[in-house]
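A.,

Following up on our hallway conversation. Structure tokens first:
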């Protein structure tokens, strides 16, 4: 069998920051297109028969190859209601083999090129999300592990090199039978505007990005992924979002701030941002009366968000003395 080698390449041009932060296209996995492979038909996430226009892609293109290089389908459009978090569909990723080569169940921003023997990673993207979130279930085979991963880069034309802007990842090491949210904080190491984002969801974390067919894992490991999204801080230009069910005091504080809620969930999340929109602290409320220590913050103005996974209940600006 001919060995196909895959290498990691980034493409992208410098983009200016849009006023509206870009979303993760088709992250709810509600749009799919059917393709006809060599031995079976399959579905790809995205709209239209030109898969190069899809934001999220898979390794299912291997199923188009002629024998003996016909690969397995490793990403499925899930229609079983018990395996869907929201809407009508989710993605079901199942690791498999092509001959003697292991093929991980994969969904992400990767373009498989058989002719070039390359997998191209990345989509043009100019946002700076604070988090990459979604919902998943996982059934590992023989101790396998799954992974969600994101990183953002920019191209430095002066030095002709790709610069890492931010990244984050989360591995799942055990079986998860009910849909559970993953919430990956993106750690930024560069102040520049990204031009490229890479997203990886895989049923087997032993993938090899520089040589895909050197990946390791267990056949049958299955990951369901749904409702993927990027999360951004509220714009610092917005006024406070007031809510009579949320009281925050004092507005000028030296050591602590009290958050008091009425008729709201007890485990709300509190997020603190500086005036540049950078998240600097997050914690969960313990009951409906919560005292947050702010003595370690530098003097200045800050934005506080009070929210759960889906709803922003209040946004307050306070001053740390």
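Then the amino acids I'd put at each of the 321 positions:
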């Amino acid at each position: 069998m001919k060995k196909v080698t895959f290498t990691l390449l980034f493409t992208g041009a410098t983009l200016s920051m849009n006023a509206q932060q870009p979303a993760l296209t088709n992250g709810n996995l509600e749009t799919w297109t059917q393709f006809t492979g060599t031995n079976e038909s399959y579905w790809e996430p995205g709209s239209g028969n030109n898969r190069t226009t899809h934001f999220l892609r898979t390794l299912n293109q291997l199923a188009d190859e002629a024998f003996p290089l016909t690969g397995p389908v490793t990403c499925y459009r899930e229609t079983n209601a018990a395996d869907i978090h929201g809407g009508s569909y989710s993605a079901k990723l199942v690791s498999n083999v092509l001959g003697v080569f292991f093929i991980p169940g994969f969904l992400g921003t990767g373009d498989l090129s058989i002719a070039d023997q390359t997998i191209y990673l990345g989509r043009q993207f100019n946002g700076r999300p604070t988090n990459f979130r979604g919902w998943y279930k996982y059934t590992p085979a023989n101790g396998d592990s799954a992974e969600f991963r994101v990183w953002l880069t920019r191209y430095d034309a002066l030095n002709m090199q790709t610069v890492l802007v931010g990244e984050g990842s989360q591995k799942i090491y055990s079986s998860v039978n009910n849909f559970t949210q993953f919430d990956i904080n993106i750690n930024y190491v560069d102040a520049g505007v990204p031009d490229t984002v890479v997203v990886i969801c895989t049923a087997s974390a032993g993938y090899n990005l520089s040589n895909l067919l050197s990946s390791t894992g267990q056949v049958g490991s299955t990951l369901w992924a749904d409702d993927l999204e990027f999360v951004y801080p509220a714009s610092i230009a917005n006024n406070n979002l007031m809510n009579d069910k949320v009281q925050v005091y004092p507005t000028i504080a030296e050591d602590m701030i009290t958050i008091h809620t009425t008729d709201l969930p007890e485990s709300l999340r509190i997020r603190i941002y500086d005036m540049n929109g950078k998240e600097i602290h997050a914690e969960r409320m313990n009951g409906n009366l919560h005292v947050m220590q702010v003595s370690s913050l530098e003097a200045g103005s800050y934005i506080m968000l009070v929210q759960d996974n889906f709803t922003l209940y209040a946004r307050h600006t306070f001053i740390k003395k």
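The chain is about 0% helix and 45% strand. Curious whether your intuition agrees with the design.

B.
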